[in-house]
Design a protein that fits this description.
The complex is a heterodimer of chains A (139) and B (494). Chain A is of the alpha+beta class and 139 residues long. Chain A has 2 helices and 6 strands, in the order H-E-E-H-E-E-E-E. Chain B is α/β, with parallel strands linked by helices and 494 residues long. Chain B contains 20 helices and 15 strands. The chains are: A alpha+beta (139), B alpha/beta (494).
Chain lengths: 139, 494
Amino acid sequence: MRITQGTFSFLPDLTDEQIRSQVEYCLALGWAISIEYTDDAHPRNTYWEMFGQPMFDLRDAAGVMTEVAAARQAFPQHYVKVNAFDSTRGIESLRLSFMVNRPANEPGFELLRQEVEGRHIRYAIRSYATDRPEGERYS
Amino acid sequence: MVSNGTAGLESAREPLLDPADRYRAGVLKYAQMGYWDPEYEPKATDILALFRITPQDGVDPEEAAAAVAGESSTATWTVVWTDRLTAADVYRAKAYKVDPVPGAPDQYFAYIAYDLALFEPGSIANLSASIIGNVFGFKPLKALRLEDMRFPVAYVKTFDGPPTGIVVERERLDKFGRPLLGATTKPKLGLSGRNYGRVVYEALKGGLDFTKDDENINSQPFMHWRDRFLFCMEAVNRASAASGEVKGHYLNVTAATMEDMYERAEFAKELGSVVVMIDLVIGYTAIQSMSKWARRNDMILHLHRAGHGTYTRQKAHGISFRVISKWMRLAGVDHIHAGTVVGKLEGDPDMVQGYYNVLREPHNPVDLQRGLYFDQDWAGLRAVMPVASGGIHAGQMHQLLHYLGEDVVLQFGGGTIGHPQGIQAGATANRVALEAMVLARNEGRDIWNEGPQILADAARGCQPLRAALDTWGEVTFDYASTDTPDFVPTPTTS
């Protein structure tokens, strides 16, 4: 399966040129860029690991591209995403978040159903990736 | 003594200052009773209203404006001595300005100021009972329309506003940088719960973020509400597991009583839904109750504006949708249908952008072209996500993004479910078209002019989008709007 989190996951994986273009858009708007990675892309796994601190006050996308390359090299079989933060009053949140790396094989998720009273069902989504301990997934 | 109907126009507009004259039993002009005051300077704490008035032939516009001020505040048709037991000068609303409407010789804009003391804190029911409760059937007026309102910060702060708001909704859904995508399940009536859930599953798995019950899907013989909720949540969870994304279906909890609505909303919560839905026809009090419930239960609250067209569409009489937008932001909903510009339902581009600005911006400056007559500070009240729904399709993606921006739910019902290759393909076509257009816009391309080419390029790698463009690419709904701006920009010569 292909996990479709992130702003552009229904398009073919972005080229470096396309990534640079999006980063330039964010920098022109004064947004800070951060890179995050995980081996468990559960839809409610909010806190991926931070690949360094968010980059504030950048003018040139080259700095971000260097970090993207470093993250991919360090975690070639992880999900890696680029986030853009807007500190404008009333927003103070992410404005763009898109994948720049994903594992070659994406095992996806199992839907667990627990039949309880009546026809009521309790659902849980489980990452197949978490069968193995952190760091040993997607090896 | 000045008696009704015999005074000269000038003297009839003057308030009677001597209490013996003012409070003598009998009938006076509203202006004489003090409801017209061109010298009045509105206070920062006043609630302001702008009405479009069409006086009956022979009725002085200032007197008509005073009558609206009077009937929407303290006045009745005759003098009452009991006014003298109150600080009547404060409680009297003041019509303070009357302007002719450009291009409409029989219509006037009447500006009216209301003291904050006239209103109960945090109650749209009280506000609307005052402002629109009595005056709309008033005989001296041929027609009356509430065009806009200004709420002072002191009043705004008495409302909780949207339980979730745009920013928090995006954080909960983990979806940023693009409009959200939805679809209303079709046909809107007749599907069994099991078949209905099939449509939900296909649309969400294909790439939509949300699917939606229609306004009149409640609990009918062909599908009871519990069945619908159970099948829909199976579909939502399956699609979420298949995509790795948070998904939702607006479960419509509209019902005959508050008890029924609470029961349905509680069941939606137990099943793990992220969103519930209500219709505008449940009434302002019920909307505020559901807003408080949604706030207590971390639920996104979707409002379908069912019925609004009966009073918002005609320019001379009723209430502008921008006023409804303001009331609903105060009342506290997270989504509201607010027009598409390009789809099948009424919506002039400037007017629709005015509604969107009211719902989304932290502060609205005066913007006559978009029908915003007052400066409005929202005092940190969360923003409402507008929903564009009704006769839109993938081929219009560049126009939708251009007119409506990023913080909007684009809902393609027929444009998803009617796709020649099936519902999943329809959903995928919309999602690919959307992401391609956002990507291109961020790259600095001129999507307004290059849009069709951007879509054609994206379709080369996406057969479902190609099929959607072939099916609907040329479909437009090109009819004149009835609700249009009264002020248009005049090009200045340099």
